[in-house]
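Intended use. Records like the one below are meant for learning the mapping from a protein sequence to its folded structure. Do not use them to infer anything beyond what is encoded.
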Amino acid sequence: MENLALIDSFSEFKDDKLIDRVTLMSILEDVFRNALKKKYGSDDNFDIIINPDKGDMEIWRNRVVVADGEVEDPNSEISLSEARKIEPDFEVGEDVSEEVKLIQLGRRAILALRQNLISKIHEHDNTNLYKQFKDIIGDIYTAEVHHVRPKAVILVDDEGNEIVLPKEKQIPSDFFRKGDNVRGIIENVELKGNKPQIIMSRTSEKFLEKLFEQEIPEVFDGLITVKKVVRIPGEKAKVAVDSYDDRIDPVGACVGMKGSRIHGIVRELGNENIDVINYTTNTQLYISRALSPAKVSSIKIDESANRADVFLKLEEVSKAIGRGGHNIKLAGLLTGYELDVIREGNAAEDEDVELTEFSDEIEQWIIDEFAKIGLDTARSVLSQDVADLVRRTDLEEETIREVMRVLKEEFED
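Structure written out for the chain above:
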């Protein structure tokens, strides 16, 4: 009964750790064999019988009967007189099986057994957890905010598993409070000691790709393929899509009527601006589409250097470059080409002046503000609408009008 009582006390781990009884019994056998090795030097001559249904177990020690005074290994041999205390009709050479009670291992050994069991179960849990999350790397996962720290948000899923969302894997506009549900992809599983650390990301291109799969049925069904995704998290993204069915418009299907389908993805990503473009193997056309919303006049490609000169009319330059240079940077990443913008214009327009030439009259930080949205010459600024510049920069209307006055004087002179 003492074996059964001890097993029942160990079985509390089964409920706490959600471990099945068969696995628990296997771990128990391993733990007990280690204890037997420590006490007797070997467990080779021991039988451990476990009943997973009843949660009971028996330990039997097998020894050979030898003549009195001839015992060389007390663990595997028993003297005739000792054997006859168990059964009076034993003879030399026969096998004796004797049940070992746990109490015989000693109180300290039993305490060590319990500690070893805890350690083995934790090791089993960690191995299973590592395998479980290793199999879903790259998939979308949802967990609840448990704790917000300066360098990471700690999430917990429905099974109580801890997931880490580092600061650098968060979208800049992300703001989390305890209890919020957070979606991201499982980016990696790292072993910290023996404990797996599960890393989530919301900035990965894979997250945006998986959101397309989740939110757009044609992508999920394989009718539309996401060829490539590039992102500046929280700011702008470009997604190249393709369809092998000519009857399907991949861009229209992804965006939806009035943006209805992509709106949920944009909201999930903190209002990240997403350009969806048709993929093509025609390099010139692909670069032209990648630079949307700008209208490209012509493109000259240098395949050997992986570069392309993109010719644009003056009014299209700022659109091609985009706010903070994001548009042209993402277009380059999407197409795999380093893109150089070449301005086109008539003779009068060619007489342009770099904004830096006006540094005596215009403060450098103001020039930098215009440069952020791709405006680095006098004519490129003068071609813009004042209200639009107020919206696209951090400059006051009065400041913009003063800059335009200075620039106009240059050409009037």
